[in-house]
Amino acid sequence: MANEYGDETQTYAQVVNGRRSIRGYLDKPVPKELIEEVLEMAMRSPSSMNTQPYHFHVITGEPLDRIRKGNTERILAGEPDSREFRKGHPFQGVHRERQVGCAIQLFEAMGIERDDKEKRQDWVLRGFRQFDAPVCVIITYDKELSDADDTVFDCGAVTTTLVNAAWSKGLGCVINSQGIMQSPVVREHAHIPDDQVIMKAVALGWPDPDFPANPVKITRRPVEEAARFVGFE
Fold first, then answer.
1. Which residues make beta-bridge pairs with 58?
2. Rounded to whole angstroms, how far apart are CA atoms 124 and 110?
3. Which bin fits 191, alpha (ψ -120 to 50), beta or left (φ > 0)?
4. How far is CA 96 from CA 33, 215, 217, 226, in A?
5. What does the H/E/C string look like for 186-217?
6. Pairing verdict, β 172-176 and 54-60
C-alpha cells in the first residue's frame, strides 16, 4: 500500500525524514486490518520495564461524528478546557517563538491572513473536528500509573512510532490535543473506561494531495543547537 506520502519500500531514514503532519484527508475509509498492522508496529516502541501502559481507542463513522459535533458545540459555547493531563503554563521565550513559527508556515500555505478572524477560527475548529480525518486514534493510559513520568514517556514513544508506521503504509497522521480538550465528550462516545486517562488524539487517514497545508514541512532546529557532545574530543 503506497502513495506519494508513503511507500513500504522506503528505508527507515526515508520514512522519518519524509513524514509530515497531515491536516487534510480524503473522504476514503481506512481498512481495519491496515490500522491493526500499524498498531502492531507501533507497539514495538520502547516501554519502560515493559509496562505498556497505553491503550488505543480507534474511532470512525458515526461515533467519531458525534465527538466532532460535541467538541465543536462545547468550544463555541465557551466550555472550559477539560484535558485530563497536565498542559503546563503557556509557552514563552524560544518555545513560543517556535509555536508561532509553525503557525506562520501553516497560515501562509493556507492563505490565512493575520486579520482574517473567520478563517483563523475555522482553522482552529478543524482541530476540534479531528481535522475531518476518517479515523481518530485516542491514546489513553492506565490511571494507576498516573504518578509515573515513565508512563507519559511511553505514550509519547508509542504515538511517535504509530505516526511513522502509518506513513510507511501510505497513511497520514497529525497528533493533536484539540481533539481531546473536551474530554467528557470523548470519553462518552469512545466508551473510554474510568480507569484510564485520556492523553492524546491522532487523526489518521489518506492524505489529500490538494490540501495546501499538507506539503508543509515544519522547520526543525539544527542538531548543533539541540545536542551537546561530551568526551568526543
1. 137
2. 13
3. left
4. 40, 23, 18, 16
5. HHHHHCCCCCEEEEEEEEEECECCCCCCCCCC
6. unpaired
The continuous run of DSSP H or E covering 141 comes out as strand 135-142
| Integer CA distances (angstroms), 161 to 40, 111, 174, 219, in order | 10, 31, 13, 20
- Which residues lie closer than 8 Å to 146 by C-beta, 6 or more apart? 197
At residue 64, the pLDDT reads 97
Specify the amino acid at residue 173.
Answer: C
Q: Which helix (H) or strand (E) holds 173?
A: strand 172-176
d(CA 60, CA 225): 41
**CB neighbour class for 170 (10 Å; exposed up to 12, middle 13-18, buried from 19):** middle
User: What per-residue confidence (pLDDT) applies to 4?
Assistant: 63
Strand partners, 55: 140
Q: Running along the chain, 233 residues long, what does each successive block of 10 average in pLDDT?
A: 65 93 97 98 96 97 96 93 86 94 95 92 93 97 93 96 97 95 95 96 97 95 96 91
> In DSSP terms, which residues pair with 54 in a beta bridge?
141
Bridge partner residues of 204 (DSSP): 135, 173
| pLDDT (0 to 100) of residue 1 | 46
Does the reported pTM lie above 0.85? yes
Supply the pLDDT for residue 205.
98
Q: Say if residues 140 and 84 touch (Cβ distance below 8 Å).
A: no
Angle at CA of residue 109, ends 169 and 181, nearest 5°: 70
Return the pLDDT at 6.
64
